[in-house]
Specification:
Blueprint lengths: L7 H6 L24 E3 L12 E7 L2 E6 L8 E6 H8 L10 E5 L2 H6 L3 E10 L2 E10 L2 E11 L5 E4 L5 E3 L10 E7 L2 E6 L1 E2 L7 E5 L9 E2 L3 E8 L7 E8 L11 H6 L3 H5 L3 E10 L2 E4 L5 E2 L10 E7 L3 E6 L7 E5 L1
Parallel strand pairs: 5-9
Antiparallel strand pairs: 1-23, 2-3, 3-4, 4-5, 6-7, 7-8, 8-9, 8-10, 11-12, 12-14, 13-16, 14-15, 16-17, 17-18, 18-19, 18-20, 21-22, 22-23
Length: 334
């Protein structure tokens, strides 16, 4: 690991995941409002559960949707024009959206990752593309980071298999890896899925533009799983999908954010968690921004596994599920 520190923009933006100071929530359980999703209907192969969406990112004004296994569809990413996404999010368009494809040469990367179990996150910055992948051997889950470029014409992504970096797990947990990426300046930070009591030293693994290792970034406590992240705003804030399925083999502790802000009606009575949490990169650490999480109303049928998140201008967030319970894309207004 080289000794140079992270860029000023990253240092100004990464802090302790402790809730903002203030009085604890004193209202009755269930008094907190929960967000109602606005579904964005999809058609074509991406609407099938086998798409297993695992990340969202913007390429200029195209929303890129990352399938966990691009090879299932002939080696492609999916994409939607921003205008169509906005029309569907605001209810101006009710017919399903059919994504087009962006070619990606992932086969060589997959071949170099022993026990490859799919791609988990995507981040785009200009023509630079970053993906995390996950593998499992002898019961141990390991993460991987790879760099690539958007080809001229923006209809293909070319990955560099020689850029692969191994991301050591931060806890001995089954099927837990690095499912969120945050970029700042010329740097990219991979966030581990579990940053709570079962992870004794949560940290983001930071790399330069060409994936040269930088000093790691401390991440303060955040209960439940972190499964994707948006881009930073001008204040260094970003949102993450933060979920928990009651069938997990590990148990979370009491959540400081729930203690501070309270629970919505379905979260007060259910065991699952589906929420969006705003964090900030600040003073060399990652911490909550002090804004109340957006809780998504839980369904009686079971917890949804939200694996993708992206901003939609300053109006709200686009979220996506993997195969559980099916491929779903939705808009959550601020």
């Amino acid at each position: 690991m080289r000794s140079s520190h992270i860029s000023r923009a990253l240092v100004v933006a990464l802090g302790m995941l402790l809730p903002a100071t203030g009085a604890a929530f004193s209202g009755s359980p269930g008094a907190v409002p929960e967000a109602t999703l606005r579904p964005i209907r999809l058609t074509g192969p991406i609407s099938e559960s086998r798409a297993e969406l695992s990340g969202l990112a913007w390429l200029d004004d195209e929303l890129v949707l990352l399938p966990q296994f691009p090879g299932r569809f002939g080696g492609v990413l999916f994409a939607l024009p921003g205008r169509a996404v906005r029309d569907a999010a605001h209810g101006w368009r009710t017919t399903p959206l059919t994504p087009y494809t962006i070619a990606i040469n992932s086969a060589d990367v997959e071949a170099r990752v022993p026990g490859f179990e799919g791609f988990e996150a995507i981040a785009l910055r200009g023509d630079d593309v970053y993906l995390t992948a996950e593998s499992k051997r002898a019961g141990l889950t390991v993460g991987w980071l790879v760099h690539g470029r958007v080809a001229p014409g923006r209809r293909a992504v070319v990955l560099d298999p020689t850029s692969l970096r191994k991301l050591a797990p931060e806890a001995v947990l089954d099927n837990m890896g690095f499912e969120a990426l945050v970029t700042s300046g010329q740097d990219v930070v991979a966030l581990y899925e579990v940053n709570a009591v079962t992870n004794r030293a949560p940290r983001g693994l930071a790399f330069g533009r060409d994936l040269e290792p930088l000093a790691s970034v401390p991440v303060s406590r955040l209960e439940y799983r972190v499964t994707d992240a948006t881009t930073l705003d001008r204040l260094g804030h970003f949102w993450v999908t933060n979920v928990y399925w009651p069938g997990e083999t590990w148990r979370p502790a009491n959540c400081p954010l729930f203690q501070q802000f309270g629970k919505g009606p379905t979260h007060a009575t259910g065991r699952g968690v589906e929420r969006l949490v705003e964090l900030e990169l600040s003073a060399g650490r990652i911490r909550p921004s002090g804004r109340a999480p957006i809780q998504l109303a839980l369904r009686p049928e079971g917890t949804r596994n939200w694996e993708g998140i992206a901003r939609l201008d300053d109006e709200g967030l686009i979220v996506a599920t993997d195969e559980h319970p099916s491929t779903q894309l939705a808009f959550v207004p601020f």
